[in-house]
Design goal:
By secondary structure, this protein is α/β, with parallel strands linked by helices. The chain is built from eleven helices and twelve strands. Helix 3 (62-72) links the parallel strand 3 (50-54) and strand 4. Helix 10 (243-255) packs antiparallel against helix 11 (267-287). It is elongated. The longest helix has 22 residues, at 183-204. It folds into three domains: 2-119, Response regulator (Rossmann fold); 143-219, Winged helix-like DNA-binding domain superfamily/Winged helix DNA-binding domain (Arc Repressor Mutant, subunit A, Orthogonal Bundle), CATH 1.10.10.10; 225-287, no CATH class.
């Protein structure tokens, strides 16, 4: 059985949802809530497998609520329910995050149930991920490249790695990743892609590398092995005469900081790192 709950500020929508869900044997309806706060309170003591969220609600909307839900339990599947907000719906569809257009039908709910059944599995936690920052930005788990369905969710993680564990609010992240969007569209895309990022990390068993508190987001640097951080340690202690240090510097300089990924916000730091690598390599060669 898949344990579910729904949140919508319109009671007649919840009543329709209940009537349809009660006919689905794979689902156990655990709660119907008119506000996000009611659901959050329930989640503290009751496990759920999935929640169905209206997007447009007074106060905290469904996108913002999804992040707070994942703070409590990052393994919950979230299905968005909407009557409009078309650009957000398109983003969800492209990334295989399920959504349902109102009014809900039994046929459409059946498709969602099949998707939920496919994703309901236990994830074993791997070792620390290795973060490649030179050439392409990539995440490696147990020697395998982590696959991404959404390039912007991946870029969000790259930006937070770039910030080296410093907490950053959503406005600064959105300004970097969606520089051409107005505030409303940037915020919607930020919340949608943050959800996708957290979901992907949870699926891979590495949700612990991302932390959010009071609207600020950061990577927990102690939970990753990162080329950028390794390089900066080498530069700090560049008096070392080890041949392997020089070889690593040469490799990283040749590949370029996130060069193949094309992130515009990384360009200034890329230039700084290139200059530092050149200076340190010259010094090391003189000592050798």
């Amino acid at each position: 059985m898949i344990r579910i709950a729904a949140v919508d500020d319109e009671m007649h929508v919840l009543e329709r949802f209940e009537r349809i869900v009660l006919e689905v044997k794979e689902l156990e309806l655990c709660g119907l809530f008119e506000t996000g706060e009611q659901l959050l309170s329930y989640l503290k003591d009751h496990p759920l497998d999935a929640v169905f969220l209206d997007i447009e609600m007074p106060g905290v909307n469904g996108l913002q609520l999804s992040e707070r839900i994942l703070d409590i339990n990052e393994t919950i599947d979230i299905v968005f329910v909407t009557a409009y907000n078309q650009y957000a719906v398109e983003a969800f569809e492209l990334q295989a995050m399920d959504y349902i257009m109102k009014p809900l039908t039994a046929e459409r709910l059946g498709k969602t149930v099949q998707r939920l059944l496919k994703t309901k599995r236990t994830v074993e936690r791997p070792g620390k991920p290795i973060i490649q920052c030179f050439g392409d930005f990539e995440v490696f788990l147990n020697g395998e490249v982590l696959a991404w369905k959404n390039s912007k969710a991946k870029e969000l993680l790259a930006f937070l790695i770039h910030k080296k564990g410093v907490p950053v609010n959503w406005e600064k992240i959105a300004d970097a990743v969606w520089p051409d969007y107005d505030s409303e569209k940037a915020q919607t895309n930020f919340h949608a892609n943050t959800y996708l990022l957290r979901k992907r990390l949870a699926e891979a068993g590495i949700s612990q590398i991302l932390e959010s508190r009071r609207g600020n987001y950061r990577v927990v640097t102690e939970q990753v092995f990162c080329e950028l951080y390794q390089l900066e340690e080498l530069i700090k202690g560049y008096q070392s005469k080890r041949t392997e240090d020089l070889r690593l510097l040469e490799q990283l300089k040749h590949r370029g900081y996130m060069e193949a990924s094309g992130y515009a916000w990384a360009h200034p730091r890329a230039a700084e790192l290139d200059e530092m690598c050149t200076r340190v390599m010259d010094d090391l060669k003189k000592k050798n």
